[in-house]
Design goal:
Elements: E1 9-12, H1 13-21, H2 27-37, E2 47-51, H3 56-63, H4 66-71, H5 75-80, E3 91-94, E4 108-113, H6 120-136, H7 145-160, H8 163-166, H9 170-179, H10 181-184, H11 196-224, H12 234-241, E5 245-252, E6 288-291, E7 297-306, E8 312-313, E9 321-325, E10 331-335, E11 342-346, H13 348-353, E12 363-366, E13 374-382, H14 398-401, H15 404-407, H16 427-438
């Protein structure tokens, strides 16, 4: 299979902000969203680049060179930031994830943290306490303009927070968190071994989140214009109000030789709907196996490459990097991103919430054939909180959300959306089903 060149759709940062400042997304941005994400375009790649972001180059240079330093820490120091009780979804993780069949992935190491809050449970409890106090003091200080504005903002958050209607008290929330540590575990920072990481990660993560909210607002406008049963602010509200945000700092380890090794075990997961996919997909997944992101929206920083001494170098292999399969099954890559851009990819939760009007696409990372070269990047997975609904827009069906024809184009080892998501699930249940499938 010969991949075609990747022509990634691009929107300048200024154009995105301008579109968000208008009540309706501009037609030009609408068209670009359809090219990148829309169901009407069967060749869409599910990825878009936001370019010319003013503060990005300095933040990228500050964060990504820390990745090989983190991966090279002594085993004891890595053990201190490893959290097995979180199913390795917080802190350091290496060789714990399965992406292609039952083979553990040792080709990369990951460090996970929430860039918006160090403790998700405490952030949710603060909202509950505010809600209780605001109900008791309703009507007080209403003449103070700043108080009224702040109260209105918090009421929007509380209206969005479905846990307030489903969790009776603080103890019940803590019990849920203890039972689902992959979702709720607090951050674990290398405060002694690499103290500069915390600030660098949070700064970059919060920038990605802020731009992701802008993009979500434009996606809302796109879907609302085409889907009569769609709540116009669905995606923006999820990203704006949810404190559930998972950042992942990734280090792809250098290979020992010049062979293009892959995780090519071609294991069938028993889901026959995508059994017609080509058998050579794993030629392009030696650094990261084929998968779909399961959250709402993923923000991605352009990768850096390093030599054995940690120095930044140009990648010597023009075939290394990110590969994507379009909805019609075309293999595309490697994806080249401008260094002053952020890429955003649709996740399966956004696919559900839009009833399939926006589509996630499977992607993988091909390793560098030249030995001694490692790769570093940073992704932020923006997603709902545990109790958030995974319902479809009115008038949309499961078959609209992922049609059988699209499933046939999935790489063989990518589990279909409907094998993990069922109507009536909340996001936490969908996440647990996904974690169980890949860990």
């Amino acid at each position: 299979m010969v991949p075609r060149n990747a022509n990634v759709v691009k929107i300048s940062y200024n154009d995105l902000v301008t579109a968000c400042s208008n009540e309706d997304s501009s037609s030009s941005v609408d068209d670009l969203i359809e090219q990148a994400f829309g169901k009407a375009n069967s060749s869409s790649l599910g990825i878009i680049a936001i370019t010319d972001i003013p503060s990005l180059p300095s933040l990228r240079t500050k964060l990504l060179p820390l990745t090989p330093k983190l991966a090279a820490l002594p085993p004891q120091q890595l053990e201190e930031i490893t959290a097995p009780e979180s199913q390795y979804q917080v802190g350091w993780s290496h060789g714990r994830e399965k992406l292609e069949g039952d083979k553990l992935d040792f080709s990369k190491g990951s460090y996970y943290a929430n860039p918006l809050t160090d403790d998700l449970v405490e952030s949710m409890l603060e909202r509950r306490r505010y809600n209780a106090v605001s109900q008791l003091s309703d009507g007080e200080n209403d003449n103070e303009e700043s108080h009224v504005h702040g109260k209105q903002q918090m009421e929007e958050v509380l209206k969005w927070d479905e846990s307030l209607n489903q969790i009776q008290n603080e103890e019940e929330l803590r019990q849920l968190a203890n039972a689902n540590p992959a979702f709720f575990a607090p951050n674990v920072w290398p405060s002694k071994s690499l103290p500069e990481l915390e600030n660098a990660l949070k700064e970059m993560g919060q920038l990605i989140h802020r731009i992701g909210v802008y993009l979500a607002k434009c996606c809302d406008s796109y879907v609302a214009a085409r889907c009569a049963g769609y709540n116009p602010n669905t995606l923006e509200n999820i990203l704006l109000h949810s404190k559930c945000c998972k950042a992942r700092l990734l280090h792809y380890f250098a290979t020992d030789d010049t062979s293009d090794s892959s995780n090519n075990n071609n294991v069938d997961d028993g889901d026959s709907s995508n059994s017609n996919s080509g058998t050579d997909d794993t030629q392009f997944s030696s650094w990261c196996g084929w998968h779909n992101d399961h959250g709402s929206l993923t923000g991605l920083v352009p990768a850096m490459y390093h030599d054995e001494n940690g120095n930044i170098v140009q990648c010597p292999d023009e075939d290394a990097g990110l590969y994507i399969k379009s909805r019609n099954g075309d293999l595309v890559g490697p994806v080249k991103l401008p260094e002053n851009s952020l890429a955003f990819q649709v996740g399966e939760t956004m696919q559900v919430h839009t009833g399939g009007w926006l589509h996630a696409t499977p992607h993988a990372v091909r390793g560098c054939k030249k030995g001694g070269i490692s790769r570093s990047t940073f992704a932020v997975f923006m997603e709902p909180e545990y109790h958030s609904s995974m319902d479809l827009p009115a008038g949309r069906s499961v078959s609209d959300t992922q049609c059988e024809e699209a499933e046939k184009s999935l790489p063989k080892t990518v589990r279909t959306l409907r094998s993990r998501w069922k109507l009536g699930m909340n996001f936490g249940e969908f996440s647990e089903a996904t974690f169980a499938a890949f860990h």
